[in-house]
Amino acid sequence: MESAPARVVNRPWLHLLLFVLTVGTTSLTFDNLFLGASLPWSARLSEALTFSVALLTILGAHEMGHYLLARVHGVDASLPYFIPLPYLGVGTLGAVIRIRGRIPTRNALVDIGAAGPLAGLLVALPFLLWGLAHSPVVDVPPVSSSFPGRTSLWCLGGDFLQWLQVKLSLAPASPARDALPQHALLIFGDGLLMRGLKWLVLGPLPPGKGLQEHPVVIAAWFGLLVTLLNLVPVGQFDGGHLAYALWGGHARWVGKAMALVLLFLTLFYTVTWGPWLLVATKVVGFGHPEVTRPAEPLGLGRKLVCAVCFLALVGCAMPVPIRMEIW
User: Fold this and answer.
1) CB atoms inside a 10 Å sphere around CB 286
2) CB 135 within 8 A of CB 80
3) 216 contacts 127 by C-beta, under 8 angstroms
4) Alpha helices in the chain (DSSP H)
C-alpha cells in the first residue's frame, strides 16, 4: 500500500511571533549601536522603529518575492520566517522561506531565484532616495584607505605576529601613543549603485564633508548588503540558482571561482568576508539539485533577468562593507 504524503501544518502564529520579536530585536540593536544616550527617549524610540520597519519591509519584500513566484509555478513554499538575533549584527539574521517542493524547470528556477533580490532592491531604492534627501551633511575627518586593508587577514595576522614577538621578548614594543583615541566614526561602504544615488540626490560633496545617515538609509544600506550576499553565484544562494539555470552542472565551477574571490577579499580587504566564505563553501556548498524537467530550454527573457541580477550584484558590490575609523 502506498503511504499518504505527510501533511504540512501551517502555523501563521509562528510567522507573526517571529516578526514581532524581530521588530523588537532590530529596534533594540539599532538603539544600542547607533543612537546616543543623550537623545530623548521618544526620539530614540522613533528612530529605532523607523530603522526596524524599513529594514523588515525590505527583507519581507525579498522573501515574499520568492514565495509568490514559487506559488505561481506550483511549488510548495512556506511564508517567510524572520530570524531575531538580539544585540548581534543588526538584530536579525534576515528572513527565509522553506521551499518544500521540487522546482520544475530552469525558467521557474530563474523566476523564483530572481524575484527575491529584485523585489528587495525595488523596495530599497525609494527608501534610499528618501533617506538620502533627509540625511544632513556634516564635517568628517579625512578617511584613509590602504591595501591590504587594516582589517584584512593579512594585516591582522601581521599585528598578531608582532604582538607575539613582543610577548616573547623577540622585538621591541611599539612606542606608546600620546593620548587615547577620543572619537570613532562608522563608515558604510559604497558600491557603484550607492555612489550613483548619492550623486543623484546630493551631488558631489566637498572634501571634509560626509553624510550623517538617516535610519532609513542605514536600513536600505543593509538591504543592499543582503541583496549582494544573496546574489553571490554559489550553490543554492539566489545567485547560485541563476548560475545553475544558465550553465547547469558547470555552475559548480562558477561557485568555486566566486569562493576564490571571497577568499581574496578576506585576505586583503577585511576579515568580515570570512564568515560568508565559510557559509558559502561549508554550509551551502557548490552543488545544486536538478530541476524535474531539465529538457525545457531557458527562455531569452529569463536570460535577460539573470543579466539584470548580475548587474545588481556588481552595483551592490563593495570590497569593505563597513569599518570603524578611530582618532
Assistant:
1) 18
2) no
3) yes
4) 12-34, 41-72, 106-133, 153-167, 192-202, 215-230, 238-247, 251-268, 274-278, 300-316
pTM of the model: 0.90
* Residue 51 vs residues 48, 113, 136, 259: alpha-carbon distances, Å: 5, 26, 17, 32
Phi and psi of 83, rounded to 5°? Answer: -115, 100
How confident is the model over 172-181, as pLDDT tens digits? 555 555 555 5
Reported as a single tens digit per residue, the pLDDT across 100-159 is 999 999 999 999 999 999 999 999 999 999 999 999 998 887 777 778 888 888 888 887
> Strand 92-96 relative to strand 209-211: parallel, antiparallel, unpaired?
unpaired
Angle at 163 between CA 162 and CA 168, to 5 degrees: 100
* Residues in CB range of 160: below 8 A, 6 or more apart: none
Candidates 206, 187, 204, 175; CA nearest to 149 is 187
Q: Is 298 exposed, middle or buried (0-12, 13-18, 19+ CB in 10 A)?
A: middle
Please, which pLDDT band fits residue 299 given cuts at 50, 70 and 90? very high
